[in-house]
Amino acid sequence: MTTSALSATQEFQEFHRLPVEPDEGLPQAFGCLIGATAYDFGLYASLVPLATDPPETLYDLAPATRITVPTAPPGYLVLRVVRHGPDGPRVVFLRKLPAEPGLIHHAGPLAIRLLEARVARGNLNGRGHYGSSIVIGVAQRWA
């Protein structure tokens, strides 16, 4: 597993949006085919909300831009990717995802980008429409 900044060739790589359903809440698991390979994805948020925050409180896990003093986001997302192959399932990716659009994570034949991460308190261990928005792109690095 490696991480790199977006290069000129990767800028034109075709990323597809993973089927994350923010209204289903976190943690969340789903499977999908990428090319001819089956993958299982697991996603959770690591953050500590205030008990007094209403369910609609949004936590933006992306780093703030255009600020003079860097501040840490209130938490982060963690993604786990399991690849199904002839030798059985194998974890190819397990790490936190900083929401930096130019940052690409490599997991074997996959490239992964977290583009947006806004998590509502109501979607932490709960379902419902509270305004969460999670956008993760995935692309094949080679056929």
Mean of all residue-level pLDDT scores: 87
- Name the assembly state: single chain
* Alpha carbon gap, first and last residue: 18 Å
* Biggest sheet overview: 6 strands, antiparallel
**Low-confidence stretches at least 5 residues in length (pLDDT < 50)?**
6-11
Helix run count = 1
* Order of SSEs: EHEEEEEEEEE
Structural class comes to mainly beta
- The residue fraction in helices comes out at under 10%
| Dominant shape | globular
Rg calc: 16 Å
* Strand content range: over 45%
What's the number of extended β-strand segments? 10
Description:
With 143 residues, the chain is an all-beta fold. Helices cover 3% and strands 50% of the residues. It is built from one helix and ten strands; from the N terminus they run βαβββββββββ. The strands form two sheets. Strands 1, 2, 5, 8, 9 and 10 form a six-stranded antiparallel β-sheet that branches. Strands 3-4-6-7 form a four-stranded antiparallel β-sheet, with no helix packed on it. β6 and β7 form a beta hairpin. The radius of gyration is 16 Å and the shape is globular. About 4% of the residues have low confidence.
